[in-house]
Amino acid sequence: MIIRIVLLVLLLMPLSPSANSLRIFTLSADAWAQPRSGEAITQYNAVRSAINYWEQGIDSAILIRYPGEDSGEIWATELRDWIISLGIPSDYLQLVPGSQAADEIKLIVGPRDELK
Question: pTM to 2 decimals?
Protein backbone atom coordinates (compact mmCIF):
# COMPACT_ATOMS: atom_id res chain seq x y z
CA MET A 1 0.00 0.00 0.00
CA ILE A 2 2.78 2.44 0.88
CA ILE A 3 4.58 1.63 -2.36
CA ARG A 4 1.44 2.50 -4.32
CA ILE A 5 1.14 5.84 -2.55
CA VAL A 6 4.80 6.67 -3.19
CA LEU A 7 4.43 5.76 -6.86
CA LEU A 8 1.31 7.89 -7.16
CA VAL A 9 3.08 10.87 -5.59
CA LEU A 10 6.05 10.43 -7.94
CA LEU A 11 3.75 10.30 -10.95
CA LEU A 12 1.91 13.46 -9.95
CA MET A 13 4.98 15.55 -9.09
CA PRO A 14 5.75 16.64 -12.67
CA LEU A 15 2.27 18.19 -12.91
CA SER A 16 3.12 21.02 -10.53
CA PRO A 17 5.49 23.86 -11.42
CA SER A 18 8.86 23.69 -9.73
CA ALA A 19 12.36 25.11 -10.12
CA ASN A 20 13.35 25.82 -13.71
CA SER A 21 9.73 25.59 -14.77
CA LEU A 22 9.22 28.78 -16.72
CA ARG A 23 6.55 28.60 -19.40
CA ILE A 24 6.24 31.07 -22.26
CA PHE A 25 2.93 31.87 -23.94
CA THR A 26 2.70 34.18 -26.97
CA LEU A 27 -0.10 36.63 -27.71
CA SER A 28 -0.02 38.01 -31.26
CA ALA A 29 -0.95 41.52 -32.29
CA ASP A 30 -3.45 40.06 -34.77
CA ALA A 31 -5.32 38.27 -31.98
CA TRP A 32 -5.18 41.39 -29.81
CA ALA A 33 -6.64 43.51 -32.62
CA GLN A 34 -10.02 41.79 -32.18
CA PRO A 35 -12.66 43.56 -30.07
CA ARG A 36 -12.00 42.88 -26.39
CA SER A 37 -14.26 42.09 -23.47
CA GLY A 38 -13.85 40.10 -20.28
CA GLU A 39 -15.13 37.00 -22.03
CA ALA A 40 -12.98 37.56 -25.13
CA ILE A 41 -9.81 37.91 -23.03
CA THR A 42 -10.37 34.46 -21.55
CA GLN A 43 -10.61 33.03 -25.07
CA TYR A 44 -7.03 33.99 -25.95
CA ASN A 45 -5.08 30.74 -25.59
CA ALA A 46 -1.98 32.54 -24.33
CA VAL A 47 -3.86 34.38 -21.58
CA ARG A 48 -5.92 31.37 -20.52
CA SER A 49 -2.88 29.07 -20.48
CA ALA A 50 -0.72 31.58 -18.59
CA ILE A 51 -3.36 32.09 -15.90
CA ASN A 52 -3.97 28.34 -15.56
CA TYR A 53 -0.24 27.72 -15.19
CA TRP A 54 0.10 30.60 -12.70
CA GLU A 55 -2.69 29.11 -10.57
CA GLN A 56 -0.76 25.81 -10.30
CA GLY A 57 2.41 27.43 -9.00
CA ILE A 58 3.57 28.37 -5.55
CA ASP A 59 4.71 32.01 -5.42
CA SER A 60 4.52 32.23 -9.22
CA ALA A 61 4.33 35.43 -11.21
CA ILE A 62 3.53 36.45 -14.76
CA LEU A 63 6.08 38.53 -16.63
CA ILE A 64 4.63 40.43 -19.57
CA ARG A 65 7.43 41.06 -22.08
CA TYR A 66 6.28 43.57 -24.67
CA PRO A 67 7.70 45.42 -27.69
CA GLY A 68 9.64 48.41 -26.40
CA GLU A 69 7.96 51.25 -28.27
CA ASP A 70 5.07 53.31 -26.87
CA SER A 71 2.40 51.21 -28.58
CA GLY A 72 3.90 48.09 -26.99
CA GLU A 73 3.73 49.66 -23.54
CA ILE A 74 0.10 50.68 -24.08
CA TRP A 75 -0.72 47.13 -25.24
CA ALA A 76 1.05 45.56 -22.24
CA THR A 77 -0.60 47.92 -19.76
CA GLU A 78 -4.05 47.16 -21.14
CA LEU A 79 -3.32 43.42 -21.06
CA ARG A 80 -2.14 43.69 -17.44
CA ASP A 81 -5.36 45.52 -16.52
CA TRP A 82 -7.46 42.80 -18.16
CA ILE A 83 -5.54 40.07 -16.32
CA ILE A 84 -6.07 41.92 -13.03
CA SER A 85 -9.80 42.10 -13.81
CA LEU A 86 -9.75 38.29 -14.10
CA GLY A 87 -8.56 38.02 -10.49
CA ILE A 88 -4.76 37.97 -10.66
CA PRO A 89 -3.35 40.44 -8.09
CA SER A 90 -1.13 43.13 -9.58
CA ASP A 91 1.71 42.07 -7.25
CA TYR A 92 2.07 38.93 -9.39
CA LEU A 93 2.41 40.79 -12.70
CA GLN A 94 5.55 42.42 -14.10
CA LEU A 95 5.84 44.52 -17.25
CA VAL A 96 9.19 44.31 -19.03
CA PRO A 97 10.06 45.93 -22.38
CA GLY A 98 12.18 44.17 -24.95
CA SER A 99 10.13 41.59 -26.79
CA GLN A 100 12.14 40.45 -29.81
CA ALA A 101 9.15 40.76 -32.13
CA ALA A 102 7.14 43.94 -32.58
CA ASP A 103 3.91 42.02 -33.20
CA GLU A 104 3.70 39.86 -30.07
CA ILE A 105 3.73 39.85 -26.30
CA LYS A 106 5.27 37.02 -24.34
CA LEU A 107 3.64 35.92 -21.10
CA ILE A 108 6.34 34.21 -19.07
CA VAL A 109 5.06 32.33 -16.05
CA GLY A 110 7.10 30.78 -13.27
CA PRO A 111 8.43 31.18 -9.76
CA ARG A 112 9.12 34.81 -8.87
CA ASP A 113 12.76 34.15 -8.04
CA GLU A 114 13.34 32.77 -11.56
CA LEU A 115 11.74 35.80 -13.20
CA LYS A 116 14.06 38.37 -11.61
Answer: 0.79
